[in-house]
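Sequence only, no structure available. Ideas?
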Amino acid sequence: MRVTIDLDTKNQLTLLKTLFNLAYFTGKRTVDILVEETRKGYHLTAYTPLDFDSVIFLRKLLGDDPVRIKLDEKRKFKVKNVLWTVKITSEGRFESRKINPLSLPWFIPRTVRRYER
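Reply:
I predicted one. C-alpha cells follow.
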C-alpha cells in the first residue's frame, strides 16, 4: 500500500524528521521516497506492505494533514491517499515539483552576541 504524507509547513527540519522517520518505519531508503515541494509544504510518498489501519496510524504519527486522515477513514469505496500535483486557484496554477531534500543546502542559523568592552 502507498503511504502519503502531506506536510503543510515549509520547515526543512520537519521535512527531514518526517523523511527519516518514514524511511525507518517503512524499511525504505530515503532515496526510494518521493518528495515533492508544493506551494505551502511538501508531499512524501512511499510504498510499503502495511495494511490500511497501520498506514493511517503511521500518517498520524508523522504529522500528516488531519483533515486528509479523517476523510480517508470515512471513505469506504472511494480512492484513498490522494495527493494533488496541480492546484488551480484564483491566484493561478501551482504545480508540485520533485526534489531531493538531502541535496539541499542546509543552513542552521546561529545567534551571535557581541559584547562591548
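Strands lie at 2-7, 34-37, 42-47, 86-89, 92-95, 97-99.
Hope that gets you unstuck.
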